[in-house]
Amino acid sequence: MDDNLVNYKTKKIMQSIEDIRGKKSEIAQALRALKIGKPQENEEVKEDMKQLIAAYDAISEQETQYTNILKTIVEIHEQATLDIAKDFEKKLKKMTQKLKEQKENKKKKKRKRTMKRITLKKLQKNWLTVK
């Protein structure tokens, strides 16, 4: 998933959560205003309070859902980051091993060339002594 897309989605969800919290605050304020006086004696006020409480509960549930979505996005993003890090480590190990093998091969070739030179010199020396 593209990081920009993740950041965009995260910001949108955070904004939604902030909006929900603002609405919850408005509902709580309206409930406080309705409690002034004797609301238990007025059926209309009781009904309004029930509706506001139901709206508050519904919005709280929505906030919980958005929070869970946000947690899931963060977990997925973290796991993706860990997966990328593991892949990078594997590639780095392979590259390190390959580099090590290349160095060893160079050393072997150099030793081989040195051995050929030594052998050639011995052959030349032996050939000269045989004459």
From TrEMBL:
Which of UniProt's keywords are assigned here? Coiled coil
Q: Which domain of life is it from?
A: Eukaryota
Which sequence ranges form a coiled-coil region, renumbered to this chain?
A: 42-113
Give the protein's recorded name.
Coiled-coil domain-containing protein 22 homolog
